[in-house]
Structure formats: C-alpha cells, structure tokens
Amino acid sequence: MARIVIIGAGMSGLAAASRLATLGHRVTVCEASGTYGGMVGRYERDGFAFDTGPGLLTLPAVYRDLALKTGREPLEDLVGLAPVDPESRHLFPDGSDLALPNASRGGVGQALDAAFGAGSGERWNAMINRGRTVWEATRRPLLEEPLPADPTPLHTDPYPVPPRRGLARLRPTGRWTLSDVAARELGGHPGLTALLAEHALRFGFDPRSTPASATVLPYMEQSFGVWYVKGGLRALADAVYRRCEQRKVEFRFDTRCEEVLTADGRARGIDTTAGPVEADVVISALDANVRHHELTGTAGTPDDRPASAHHADDIPGRFVVLLALRGERPAGTVHRTVVHAADPAAERAGIFDRGAPLAERPTVQVLRPDDPSLHPAGHHTAVLTATVPSTRAYDWAAPGAADRFADQLLAHADAAGLGLGERVLWRVVRTPADTRREHGSLFGSVPRPALPGARGAYLQAATEEYPGHYLIGGAAHPGGGLARVGMSACITANLIGPA
C-alpha cells in the first residue's frame, strides 16, 4: 500500500482518488477551496441552479469505465444520463436554421442537405471521415496511454490531405489548418465553415492556425454522441465524490499546497497551509503555470515551464451568463442552440488578435435544459456561453465591460428569435477573471484538448514529471475537457498500479 497525496479535488483528482483507493492505496486529497469538483461547479439562488462549468457530457465511456472499475456498477446507477436529441440547433446570419441529430452520421448529412442544399452533407461527411483517420491514428497514444518519451510522431498531423488537382499541385502543401479544410474541402460554404469553426472556438482554438487534426473533435461528437446528466453535471461530481468516500479517501478541504517536498530526486509529500503531508507518491491536478510558479519555485521562464504553459496567456477564456427565466420552457425548445457570429472574421480577430475589438455579435451557445430540478415550478433556466480573450488580453474587470458584453450576447440571441430578454428575472455574469479567481488558473483560459500536429505545439505536459510526481487534469496529457481529465486519471492510476 502506497501513501498517495493528490493536490486538487477537481474531476481529475476525484477520478484518480477513487481509482487508486480501489487499487488498495491510502489516498489523501488536499483541496485549497472548501468543496470538490473544480470547474464542475454550481451556482444556486432563489431555487434556481446552474452548472458554472461544462453543461454537457461527451465520451461518457470514460465515466462508465470509472463506475465499473471502482464499484462494478453502470454509470446509469449513479446518475441520470440521457442523450441530447437533437444534439444542437444552429442559427446562422443568413437565416438558415439547422437541427443536427445526436450520434447519427447519416442524419447529419440529411439535415445539412436540407439546410444548405444537395451535396452539403456529402462534403461534410467526407471531412468527418478524415477526422476518423485522425482518431484511429492517435486514439491510443493521445488518449489511452502516457505521452511517449519521444512524442515526435505526434508532432506530425495525421489528417489525410486529399490529392490536389490542376494548378493546385504546383503550390507547396505546407501544414493544413482548419481554415484550409473549410476552404478546400467544404468549398468555403459559410454555413459549413461556421459549423466547423464552432467546434474549434468552443475549445479556444483559432481555426486560422489550428492543425487540421482538430477535425477529430466533430468526429468524436457526432460518432459518440452528447449526453445530459440530470440535475446538471454537478451531479456527476457528487457521484464520483461519493465513490471516493466509499473507498475511504481522506479529503482535506481549505488546505492549500505550498510546495512539493522532494528527497533524493523523488517526491516525498507536500507542504500545506495545515502542515506537511508525507507520501510515497504526489499527484498534481493543477494549472501548469500555478504548479511551476508556486509549487516548485521556478521563475516561470519559457525554458522551465511545460510546453502546455508556454502560450497560456494567449489561450482564450469563457464568458458565461446565467439566466433565471420566468415562465415554462417553451414547447419544442432544444437543449443546445448555437447562434453563429454575424461576422466570423471580426469574431476571430477579437478573440485571437491582440488589441482588436470584441465582436458585437459573436458565436454564442445557449443551453436550456428540460430539467425541473434546476428551477422553481413555472420557470426555467438558460446559460449563454461565448469564447472570449483571456484576462491577459482583455481587461474584464474594467467598469461596465462584463455587463455590456452580456447585453450584446443576449441581444444577439434574441435577434435570432430565442426571446430570452423579456423573460429574464435576474442574471449572473461570469468572466475569465472569475475563473482565474476561483480556480487558481493564472489566465482563466479554456481547458484545451491535446491535438497532434503543429510540431507538438498542442500537446500537454507529460504524465510523470519526475519519480513519484505525476500530473493529471487539463494542463497535463491528454488535455482539458471533462472526458480527457478523466482519461488522465485513468492513465496515472494504471502507471502507479495496484498496492
């Protein structure tokens, strides 16, 4: 039996703790805040409840595996789980209205043909098939195994660039980006381009520079589906926390880690605000920058920070508006609606180009769950989310900045016909600055999944930093997002092994 201390009670910390305790280890989790769940938070007021982090679950197989390996129970015995269908509704500036079915490649093709004209579905599905090639080439090394000691093979994008014809053969190929895919494979169609770009923007990726391997994101979503956890995703955090309690994991809340203790080149425990905690293994589930600046005492220069932290100040954040709405949820309302940007070029400049103004009508995701446990009778809720510049690139604390942008998002959604503004009882605005303050991230950035290609620029820090010290969570391999942080916990538990 090893003594294991985990820094952070976010979802990766909870998942790792439950797995390792099931393997027979003595596990202690030290959490700086007073609760668990990390980014999977909850806001409650006047009988309304909201997820403050992710609102939908993809790749539920990760948490199904966790439930089975730690308790021999199906995930559905721990939480209410339901597919979201339609998976999403998309409203475009030209008035096009597109509803995509959940986990149905054929259905998606038919919906695209109906919305954008014959052949649109064929174009899209041909691109998705190439995204499947990326999935098959990288699933094991990028999602199921530790980052290889030599990650060079993952520096090359496995996206199969289609053969070029005519004069195009004379131009150098270079590295394909998502923008190249949209232009050359989707024919530059504005609707299809916006649909592809939305998958990138959601994770803080700039389509103009993100490698074509990011087509794996829509492939995974359309192949494995999107799911809703009844009661919100906080219910999933509650379930994993209960499993930890059943496996006798010790939690120390309001206990901040100050330093990782080492001896003879190996981690030997941590020093906390409540005193030292001795351990045979230390697992850090923290932002890569926080870990290096605060725990190891490094200066934080590009040479001593992990690759995933090099450009963290350029990674966008999420702007969220929680809406308490009067009246019942209108009949026929879909769970997830995406209102696309009026000017995609202006939106990308406002997010990624330093000094450019924010777009007034950006892409906004609207979640309106049909879940009576989240609101008083006769009312309902909505959550608006947009990708925005990080706190380093934009001053979200400037007087009136957050409220003005929230007004713009609400007006943009209502101009598309959602009719939210007239129903608002009250709202809460959350900016990347709030994320940074609450979760310790230096920049309040979007957790991003690892991607192959671009010479390794989109890979995360390796799982094992030095003997006895492991990294999990969104800043470590295989990257951010609820499914991937669960994968990072699984990878680490497998490396440590049973007691």
From TrEMBL:
Highest taxon above the source species: Bacteria
Pfam families recorded: Amino_oxidase
One function term, GO molecular function aspect: oxidoreductase activity
Annotated region (Disordered), positions in chain: 144-166
Domain Amine oxidase, chain residue ranges per copy: 11-494
PANTHER family given in the database record: PHYTOENE DESATURASE
Name of the featured protein: Amine oxidase domain-containing protein
Lineage: Bacteria, Bacillati, Actinomycetota, Actinomycetes, Kitasatosporales
